[in-house]
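subagent[fold] <- orchestrator: predict structure for attached chain, return tokens only, no commentary.
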Amino acid sequence: MADQDQFEVDLTNCDREPIHELGAIQPFGFLLALSTDWLIRRASANIADFLGTSAEDLLGTSAIPLLGEHAVHTLRNRLALLRGADAVERVFGVKLPDDRCFDFAIHMNRDTILIEGEESGDETSTDIGSAIRAMVARLDETSDSASFYREGARQVRALTGFDRVMVYRFDRDGSGVVVAEAARSGIGSFLHLRYPASDIPQQARKLYIRTPFRIIADVNADPVPIVPRRDETGAPIDLSLSVLRSVSPIHIEYLQNMGVGASLSISIIVEGKLWGLFACHHYAPRRPSFERRSVAELFGQMFALKLESRERAELAGYETAARVTSDRLLAAVAGNSTLLDNPEWLGAMAREVVPSDGIAIWLDGKIAYSGMTPPPEAFPHIVRRLNAMAAGKVFSTDRLADMLPAASAYDDVAAGLLAIPISRRPRDFMLLFRQEKIRTVQWAGDPHKPAQLGPHGPRLTPRKSFELWSQEVRGRSEPFSNAELRIAEMLRASLIEVVLRLSDDAQEERRRFSERQELLIAELNHRVRNILSLIRGLVRQSLDPEADTRNTIALLEGRIESLARAHDQITQDNWSPAPLGRLIGTEAAAYLAGKSDRLLCEGPDVLLYPNAFSTLALVIHELMTNSAKYGALSDNGRVEVKWDLEDNGDLHIQWRERGGPAVQPPTRQGFGTTIITRSVPYDLGGQAEVRHVLTGLEADFRIPARHVAIGEAARPAPPPPAPAGLPSDSAALLSGVVLLVEDSLIIAMDAEDILSRLGAQRVVTAGTVRQALAEIDAEKLQVAVLDVNLGAETSLGIADHLSKLGVPFLFATGYGEQLRLPEDHAAVPVIQKPYTLLSVGQALRQALEG
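subagent[fold] -> orchestrator:
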């Protein structure tokens, strides 16, 4: 149907297979194959028609006297713009020495430069920018897919002048259908006709991705050979990317059978795959100018981008709605496992996610079903067949009888199947069925006609008949879409976790959980003791008799907060190695205030084990603090942090400050300097070197390989910049009585001090739910701060009571991202412990304004 190159049957791998097409080109242009020193190696035999000399006379001569200095200079400049293996550059209206103007296409094939030229057309030069802008604007005005396709066909026909322009879309089975058409009157219509997959072989489809534009100006024109036919190695010239490449006689016969005199095709490539084609037919020879064809190709690319954007928007809308329903289904099943035995309820919920006509649940050899399904005796055979296939994957088919021939007996009620495994062993499934959808498909000729050997040897013989051939399709359902399969995969992963509690493995899981809990308690006790020792050391070393007490407290708070941030990042991955890039980004966020361009991070994806991560967190914190006070970040400078892995696996980190004030060595070594210079050597067995050069502080650290892991995922994006600090009037944030619910006296005292600094008239504290409720009844509160976990109870009941009274409140927790609040309080601000003036102030402002 559409323009394609039909190749020999044995060419099964032509992703990069050279396409020679008999070593010839179409006669409306000429070809020069130049060596990289611009000495001509080969040329098309019709070169005399265009340049007045024979191909044989050109061999071994320079291109400059032939094309002229101006043309060669222009082509050299275009050659410098080539990027990528399949790049082709074009230049229009280049004047040759005889004052004629030519359009050129130029590309590289290894050490050969291929130049194709054709005489510039008489058409008025097109304002490409204005033309494409107007065409795309018309596409944007369309309201649905059908009108979008139709407008695309109209625009291409207006641009090329072909008798018929079709938008041709490929389906999953490889066949294609005409989804839109723009044609002159009186030539009939191909709209909605379907063409078999064999009309466009896989080899041709792969080539359509490499060369997305193809024209055959005259089906009956004789091809022009390349002289000499083979190079010095005996190989024919590679014309894979040629604009003028001749056409396979197989395809010429195909077009002649259709009565077509000229054809043009533009690939529609979506997400790197061939979605379809603009297929253009003319019933006489036709060759739009090279410039006009290039505009059409550019429009095809813009059409594909717009199409991709539309499909993604539709898909995102569907998946968002489906995920909401899926989450409700899973939450209900997780709270009440007996719902898995209720197919009516499950079917109603599942149909909101994936439309179906029937549902069955196969669990532990028992079946529950609802709606239109196969007979009960058929389910063991279906499940047995599914278990024999790849286990653990979602499976779908629109014709169950292809998988299980006996299913043809009931394909009127269950022709299509979507099977979702819901256990880790291949035995339990959620089965969604779709009934048969009888429909009539209109083919352009009989799609079942077998291929035959033809007069050109062992090649496909093109079809001779394109008459309308109707086929009634039975035994098939509406296919399950890719979006539905993605939702099904998400359901599979979630349902497996729910069903595990009902499986034979549930008891084993509980035993393992108990063992893990005991180990966790022991590990937690060990780590808490280490953390307490570390905090005690930080307090002692941060004390400076000569320093101001307030500054000492601020230094200590910063170091403790840095450790807390590092601990949060490690625990996000279950105390496993964490990314170095995320550590640096988190520490920098507190100082950059949105000016992320002042920090440059560059290095491979590496992870640090917890001990090294905590140690390096303190080092980076001290470097950032010093830079913000005295170095590059205190002025208009920048910080560059680069790291790389050495041959022995050690991690080398470079810290460079540039553009800040002049740096002077410190007169004395404080605790911060000690952390920078001694932590890595002492705690990790590495090396640390710090240099106070005039242009900015420089530091180098070497972390031994035993503390480093290679990152498997992409480098995590830097955390968002830290929110802006509290305004200067933060002391006036509060004015009344504040309720603080906290079960630790020491932590409560620290929080009281922060709330007082924020302007609280009085802070009342409570360590239990009972005490808190009594204080609420006795006081008129401005706001409340609630620690979520209070020993054996939680403060959620307090939150419910405050909500009824209309008192604003916020939650505090030490559980980090693992905290899950009820839906009623999902919008309440949450702060992470330890309490800081900045975090409490920001959360209070949000609670009071919300």
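orchestrator: received. Logging for downstream: The longest strand covers residues 273-282. The chain has a mean pLDDT of 79.
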